[in-house]
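Internal tracking record. Fields below are filled automatically when a chain is submitted to the structure queue. Please do not edit lines marked as system-generated. If the sequence contains nonstandard residues, flag them in the REMARKS field before resubmitting.
Queue: standard
Priority: normal
Entity type: single polypeptide chain
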Amino acid sequence: MKKKIIYISLLAAVMGGMSACNKWVDSKPYGAPSTAYFWQSDNDLRKATNDMYVAMRYESTWGRDLFWVQDASDDLVVGRPKADGENIKNFIPSGREGYLTSGWNDLYRTLNRANQVIAGVPTSKNTTEAARNQALGEAYFMRGFTHFWIAYLWGHKNQGVPFDAAENPEFGKRMAPQLPSVTDDYAQIISDLQKAADLLPTFETYSADNQGRAHKAAAWGYMVKTYAYWAQYDASKWALIPALCDKIKNEGHRALVQGKGSGKENYRSVFTIANNWSTEYIWSVTSGVQGGSEFPGVVLENTGWNIYNGWGYFQPTAELYDEYEEGDPRREVTILNYGDKFTYFGEEREYWSNNSLSGFQMNKYMEPYTYGKDGKSSSNTYINQNGDYPTTALNLPLMRYAEILLFKAEALIQQGKNGEAEAPLNEVRSRVGLTPVVNPTMNDLKHERRVELACEWTDRLQDLKRWGDYDKINAPLHGRIHANKSDSQSPYTIQVIWPKRNFDPAKHMAWPISPDEISRSNGTYKQTPGW
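SYSTEM-GENERATED OUTPUT FOLLOWS
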């Protein structure tokens, strides 16, 4: 199933410094290029920035592997037997699991490429100021964005992650220093994202062929998320969030998708190919039939009812299914339950599964599989016909405007401004036809965040960690076990499908770095505290 990708270690990336360009840029035939040769035109700058986005389409990042740590929440189970995935789910990884190391390597690869652009652009010749500002804005965003993922996954309050900036005089001459705390990482991330926001245009100014590039609202959005994660260590950061959320709305021109005839259709339409670039879009993995995120195929029924090669991972739990209040249309859009009707390659079916451990399947990413006729995958032009790389024309949302509204509500509640939190929280609820909540509490916010963003790349596990809800992480997880798995109307019993786990906040607040990475550093890098 996996693409053949050559991974580099963090040490190879950061020690290469600017000389790594010789392994990266297009070169003259039979000759070794120099950075002076490379930075010679606006087109060179564009080639350099394009390359920063390549790893976003890898299985090791937002295709699948960075989701394994999110699978460790109470919303999902692994699905198919997978030892490394089960170790992560059970908080007993060694750190050498490919599902951890591959993402680490490719995040650092991308960060290093951003560093190269930041270092190279000021040396460029025959380039316009507009092209230089655009390239630097994208590079600062991608450095901040990838650093954010590395920091929140592997960073600890008592020990940060390795980072070096191209602006530092010693960059390329030393091993990237490990920062003292994840809060130092967050401070650097905020700095980079602010520089990106200052340089980048708004999304709507992009032509169609540039829509996947970084833009102002994306930079502000990840500043909001960085401050929210930082706030678990410094509550003063909550005060910085509401104004940024307002900028995303008023200056970034982001808004919820609405006006589709019903609450259910409002919500369903967010996860459609036609709305890849809607007003709700903040940041996503740009995808198509020849490349992009594999995730829609990763969560599809294993072998796709013998029609298409779904992989059958990451199934919702009964706990998540039962979290939705009566009449919330988001549940049916998010989760397929036995007997639910759905369209699959042009034919209506009722859901059943020989694969699902829980009796449920994610439904949010199924729209690309509705197209076609006669139930044949070959008739569908919105999917990659190679089921070993099951990309689709549906972009994978990583951040959307609904999450920004919920962060604003959370920031206001955390500051004791519960009444002011009504507007952003209820904007999310009213979009799907639910009654407003008066004077919302953190429990209301936690519920709304869970059901609005379920099965997305927003990291429910990290939410539970930062809220201190460790009991929910450790509780046994349940599913609906049907007497006849291939009968959509089969009766079921509620059973434990994943036993109680032993999440320990003294150890498990951050993931372990590969011991091999530690060893290669010759003592420069230290293991995540507790591991």
